[in-house]
Specification:
Layout: E1 2-5, H1 11-22, H2 28-39, E2 44-51, E3 54-64, E4 72-80, H3 89-103, E5 109-111, H4 118-126
């Protein structure tokens, strides 16, 4: 397995992971454009996991800055192809994200995970993450 920085050429694999592993049906062409944009942001980092030249997972982290806590990174997405779960892919992606967070001076990593994703919650606990609080997630689209 190889963990590397994502490139815009990974858009089809990331789109497939978003759709099949996370349940987000975002259009393919918009995924490519959004990936290209995010890759240009210095506060964001996307790593992919490859096995036999096939992208089987990715993690997207971004800066988490607020005036009431230390600088952290926020995991915005972590997806692993169902056929490659329980093989260390997610753990290696988390480790890559943690290494980048430390390199950039962050004091930790936070993430939000849907209440029904109980397997993901167990995975995060096994990686040393603690449940801090339960909350609601609100959105308003324009």
């Amino acid at each position: 397995m190889t963990i590397r920085k994502a490139t815009v050429n990974d858009y089809m694999d990331i789109w497939s992971l978003n759709k099949n592993s996370l349940g987000y049906d975002y259009p393919l062409n918009k995924t490519k454009d959004k990936l290209q944009f995010v890759l240009s942001l210095p506060a964001d980092k996307i790593f992919v996991a490859e096995i036999n030249n096939k992208v089987v997972g990715y993690i997207h982290l971004s800066a988490y800055e607020c005036i009431y806590f230390e600088s952290m990174k926020n995991i915005l997405a972590l997806a692993v192809d169902e056929n490659y779960r329980n093989q260390g892919v997610g753990r290696q992606l988390i480790q890559a994200g943690e290494a980048w967070a430390k390199e950039t001076g962050s004091k930790g990593i936070r993430l939000s995970s849907g209440f029904n994703r109980t397997e993901a919650h167990q995975f995060y606990r096994h990686c040393g993450y603690e449940l801090r609080k339960e909350q609601k997630n609100f959105i308003k689209m324009f």
